[in-house]
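HUMAN: Can I see a protein plus its fold?

ASSISTANT:
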Amino acid sequence: MLLPCEVAVKSLLPPVRAALAKQLMTKHNLKQMEVAKLLGVSQPAISLYNKKIRGKALDLEKEEEIKGLIEELADSIAERGLSHKDFTLKFCKICKATRAKGLLCNMHKALDPTLDIEKCGLCINPSLKCP
C-alpha cells in the first residue's frame, strides 16, 4: 500500500525538477552546473531533464496553476535562494495542487494495483490536509 507522498516522490518530483531546471536555465540564464547545485542533483541529471529523458512522467506545462507555482519556486531559488524549509513548503504546495487535480491517481494505480482510485478520493478531497 503506497502513500500519496511515495507516488509523488516517484512520479512528481522528477517532472518538477525538470520544469525547475528549464526555468532556471531559460529565464534566469543559469548553467547546468549552477542549476544542479541549486537543486541538489548532478549536472548529468540536469542534462537528462533538459533532453526530456528524465522527468517526463507528467506534462506539467499544460497545467497553468502548477506551471505558475513552479515558476514562482524557480524565481525564489534564483533570486535569493531558499532555506530547506521554504523549499519544502513550496514543493508541498505544488504537490497538493497536483494531487487535488487528480493528476497522480493513475500513476498511483499503476504503482499499486490494489488501489481503487474510484473510491479513494483522498487527494482530491479539500477537507483532508497534509502538512
